[in-house]
Amino acid sequence: MVLNAAGLGATAVYSGEAGVALARGVEFEFLVTGVVMPRMNGIEAAIQICELLPKCKVLLVSGDNDTSALLQDALSRGYKFEILPKPVHPLEIFRSLYSVKT
Q1: How far is the C-alpha of 39 from the C-alpha of 37, rounded, in Å?
Q2: What's the chain's Rg over C-alpha atoms?
Q3: d(C-alpha 19, C-alpha 42), whole Å
Q4: Lowest mean pLDDT, pick from 10-19, 61-70, 93-102
Q5: Do residues 54 and 46 touch, judged by C-beta distance below 8 A?
Q6: Could you tell me the strand order of the sheet in which 57-62 lies?
Q7: pTM of the model
Q8: Do residues 30 and 57 touch, judged by C-beta distance below 8 A?
Q9: Which CATH class is domain 2-6+29-97?
Q10: Using CA atoms, how far apart are residues 38 and 63, in angstroms rounded to an integer?
Q11: How far apart are the C-alpha atoms of 63 and 67, rounded to whole Å?
């Protein structure tokens, strides 16, 4: 709701699989995702989405302090993602989205 109110045209999905499916049909600029999710975690979803949309900027948010192994795995696969701790203020999301490198 906050992203839409700012004019970004955000679409919410509720699983990593749904995010990847959306990326197959809709080209989007930004991905904001949680990390810890059932079945497909947010980092795996981000990697698959980046393969489909190489220019997509990714911002991860997590309330779990132990995401280092997941981030290290992504780095070993050539992906470096920014992660913000939950709760995150909407202004911090905007700042991060516009400073994240592709």
Answers
A1: 7
A2: 13
A3: 9
A4: 93-102
A5: no
A6: 30-34, 57-62, 82-85
A7: 0.86
A8: yes
A9: alpha beta
A10: 15
A11: 9
Angle value at C-alpha 48, between 19 and 58, nearest 5 degrees: 70
User: Taking the domains of the chain in order of start, what are their residue ranges?
Assistant: 2-6+29-97
Give the position of tokens 């911002």.
Answer: 59
Instruction: Give the Cα separation of 14 and 17 in Å (integer).
Output: 9
| 60 beta partners | 33, 83
Q: What is the 3-state secondary structure (H, E, C) of 15-75?
A: CHHHHHHHHHHCCCCEEEEECCCCCCCHHHHHHHHHHHCCCCEEEEEECCCCCHHHHHHHH
Q: What is the mean pLDDT of residues 22-47?
A: 94
pLDDT at 2: 84
